[in-house]
What we know:
By secondary structure, the protein is of the alpha+beta class. The chain has helices at 27-41, 71-80, 104-124, 126-144, 154-166, 193-199, 235-251, 275-289, 335-341, 349-369, 373-385; strands at 5-8, 13-19, 49-58, 61-70, 85-88, 169-177, 181-189, 204-211, 214-224, 229-231, 255-260, 264-270, 292-300, 304-311, 314-316, 389-395, 401-406, 412-417. A hairpin with a 5-residue loop joins strand 17 and strand 18 (412-417). Helix 7 packs antiparallel against helix 8 (275-289) and helix 8 runs antiparallel to helix 9. The longest helix has 21 residues, at 104-124.
Amino acid sequence: MYGKNCAVKKSDYEKYSINLPFKFLLGKRRKKFIFKELEKLHPCFSDEYCFDSKILYKNWKFFADVLVMNKMKLASYRFDNPRCKLHTEENEKKLIFVEKKKYIHILCSFIFVFFILGIMFLIHFRNEKKLAMKKTEIVEKEFEQNEGLQNRGDACKLIFDAIDKCDGKISNFSFENSGFAENVIVSVNDIFAEEILGADSKIEVSSISYLNNVPNLRLHHSSKTKKNDFAPAVYSDYLAFLSKFRSLLINSKCKIVEENNNPFTIRFSFEIEQFEDLFNKIAALFNVELFFCPTLSITKGQVFTVYLKIENALPIFSNGKENNSSINSTQNFNVFAFLAQNKKLFFTRAELSALSQNEKSLLQNQKQKQPSKIYLKNVKQNASKNNDKIVGKIKNKDGTSNVFYKSNNKKIYMIKEEVVNENE
């Protein structure tokens, strides 16, 4: 009925109290400041959520009493109760998400009172205001360095370490990086729930299925990460990178299934024996160009099927310079290099044995077709003469190394180095 109030369940919203500096008290500044704070405080806060805020004044300080709620849940409450006012279960008099047009006179009165309080605050407490602002800046810096924020890639390492301890095998892998949080979902065969929970209790087992009495677990873990800001790259550079990435797949004999633009997404498949080599090549390309891959999923069958998204975004580092860090850098976690290093978790022992035999036969064929060491030496000398930069180096199990160079015309090429016996 019209005029009745409707209580919102406590489980459908989250409450936060945020210290509000004086310069962010009014208008759009306050909204932007609260939005940034919620990105730090609320798990996976995004455009899917909305918030309602009220200003409180306690102990000579201003606070924002903020209530966060999913937009879909809020819409369902309003749809089910179209003529009711919403309030919290804790306090029936506290109305939330009130339409501004109906209460404009209340808002004007509040602004007037708030203006008077602001003048009083400026006149009588100027020194206190400066101290409060300094304390707020210190708290913000401490929060950014909070130990609870993990490095990029920690979610992947936690799940993979636990799977390795239990000797499980991955059949599906999904990775998503929103810029301030990482979500990892993995399907694992041949292990039981109590084994994985015993290895690490932080991992969530979301579902368990069986095929011929063999368990298949669906594991999930998410974590807040240290946030890096991203800025759009020059669009022509972005298009050039996409062309390089597509050429890499075609030259590696991958089968491209589909592709979309804005944002760029691609689905492709490759043979199982290409796993380590292909992901090392992709890792080297991403390590040089530093474009952002926020979504990656891998499905294992007769072949591996990969879906990924590449955004036109480059990381902005705190020193203001581009960081050509190594593939294993925690600041710029490279998921492709990580997968190549942990390929054993995607294969059974029989498959790994077959792969090693194939690698041995390939090495024998390569030795027969391998160019002379004098030729490789000349190629290296030409690279040094042209001042081509080394942008990445990957060590192989056979003792050789794949060294990636970047020429003056921004082309990437690889030279394979091997340990040469001086007696030869």
